[in-house]
Amino acid sequence: MWQTLFPTATTAYRGGRAPLVFFALLATVSTARSLVHLLAPDGGAGSIAGLNLAVAGGTNIVAIFSQWGASQLLLALVQWLVIWRYRFLVPAMLALVVLEQLLRFFAGRFKPLELDTLPPGQYGTYIVLVLALLFLALAVRNSRQSG
What we know:
This protein has 147 residues and is mainly α. 69% of the residues lie in helices and 0% in strands. The radius of gyration is 18 Å and the shape is globular.
């Protein structure tokens, strides 16, 4: 059954060590972030993001953060699967990370949070975007040179 669900990779990863290590760091952060959103009593909405949960619908905010954590955990599991079994997909996954950060950036511009202080994810979007672009370019360049 394992082989049916997860067939052997037919293409070798040639993107270099640095992009792979960066992607593993992203997978680690994704896993931790998802578990916080899924398991923390407030889903991280108040304790990390600084949202006021003492409002009408505050429990709904917590529920949404928890459900978001469940989705993030699935993405983290896919990231680990790529690292362990399908490394040739690292460049494609880095491209998805870039796209995700761009979408988060634009979503934040169209529907900004109204908070006294910005949540860590706000800063993380800029940092991850730049680093993911850098490591994606490196992975693509390394793949071309070794292929």
